[in-house]
Every structure is written in C-alpha cells, then in structure tokens.
Amino acid sequence: MKKGLITKLIGGLYTVIDEDNNSHDIRARGKFRHTNESPKVGDNVLFDEDLIRELFERKNNLVRPPVANIDQAILINSCKEPDFSFNLLDRFLLLIEHENITPLIVLTKIDLMEKSKLDELKVKMKYYEKFYDVLYCSAITFEGVEEFKSIFKDKISVFAGQTGAGKSSLLNALNPEFDLETNIISKALGRGKHTTRHSELLPLFDGLVADTPGFSKLDFYDIKEENVPDCFVDFFEISNQCKYRGCKHLNEPKCEVKRQVELGNILSSRHHNYTTIMAEIKEQKPKY
Known about the structure:
Elements: E1 2-10, E2 13-18, E3 23-28, E4 44-47, E5 51-55, E6 72-78, H1 86-98, E7 102-108, H2 115-128, E8 133-136, E9 156-161, H3 167-174, E10 199-204, E11 207-211, H4 228-231, H5 233-238, H6 256-263, H7 268-283
Parallel strand pairs: 3-5, 6-7, 6-9, 7-8, 9-11
Antiparallel strand pairs: 1-2, 1-4, 1-10, 2-3, 4-5, 10-11
C-alpha cells in the first residue's frame, strides 16, 4: 500500500496524491460508511490501486468547510457587498481557534469602500492586529494581493468566510489558471450565491489551498460553553487576573476582562459578540 494525501472529493470519488506526486482517482472502502471517520480532503491515507484503506490520525477536522489537517485558516471578510461584520469575524475566529488552527484575517473589496470609512475600519481592526495578522486587498485592483504570495509555502490553507465575501475572486487573482466560478452579489438579498460545489486542495505558491463553500451562519454544536473563554485569545491572556478561576467574563464580580472593556482596552463589540455566542451555546440543544 502507498501513503497519500486526499486533494479532491467529488461524488464519492477521491483524488489522492502519492509521495511521488502521482495522482490517483479512487473510492474509499465500505467500512467508512459505518463510522464517523469518512475520508475527506486534507486526510493522509493508506491506499492501494483500488481503494482508500486507512486514515492517519488528524491534527484537526473542520465540519464546515469539510477539510482536515489544516495549518492556517484565511478568513475572508468583505468590506462592502456584503458589509463587514465584526460579529461574523468573531464567530469564525472562535471556530478556528477551537480547532487549534492559526487564523489570518483578510479584508477584501477595499476598492468598494470610501477611504474615510476604510480608515475608520482599519482603526478598529488595529485591536485584532495585536493577536492576528491582518491583510487588506482587492481582487479587482490587485491592491494588496502581492503580500499573499509568502504566506502559503509548505502549508495547507483553507479559505473560509461568509457567502459573497470574495474567496473565489481572490484565489483567481492569486492564480488566474484556477478560473473558479464567481457570482455577483444579489442586490435584493445583500449576499452572494454559493459558487464552490466541492472541496479541493489547489497548489499555490509552494503550498496547498482549499476553496470551500461560503456560508453566513455558523453553528457551535461541537463547542462546549466552558471552552469558549479560552478561544477568545485576548480574554484568555488576562483571565488569570480575574478573581475567580474559570471566570466566564459574564456576570462574575471583579472580572478583569469586563474591567478592560470598561476601560476601552477591549473592543466593546468583541465582548458583546462573546456574550451573544455564550448565550447561544448555552441554549442550544445537543446534536445527535
């Protein structure tokens, strides 16, 4: 048997690249249908000329988008059409941090935003730059695109973000040969149509990148309430200064996180989004 990496999945047919960089289109053995470990893009596998036989242990596993063993998540957020949302950004960051994947924040469509409005947004984003790399770009004018070329080397990256944020457009700008389908934003709904129909790892600047379906709502069924505070890295860094161990930064007295919000050192929108997420996770019913 050979070792390989799954780079594409369409209709139950997997494309596996072996250690000699040869491509194989095969199916998975039947036993995976009876487990929760069906092979997915990004999996390292053992296979023969007929079937994928075994999966190697995963270091992480995303459900949406359905990709495994990711090194970094490039979170695509549009400035306009659809409008930028700190709420969506914080929700994506929670999911990515929970999977122990390094996030990189990207703001696209800067060509559509008035300079004064963009400058205001950049001031707020300075807070996130204390904890994450933040890039600004336009797939239309190519402004900022050159900065991307160094971030992919020797990594498996996933592009994720709300529908219509410009993931496929940006990938096309980075490599026109991708020729990925894009759609114009619906003026009536203010959001884009899903353009990516399957998961695939594409070679890009000495790395691999997955273009994945966009989505505007995020679910947290796999995240427990007690794990959320640790996934907000800015809260975690000062949580040892809270009076109570295991402080949830909600109603507890002498909470250092809430004090820093009041002082203006933590974005109030960030804490508001956190409390909303905590309430949502607390109220959600278990998913079986």
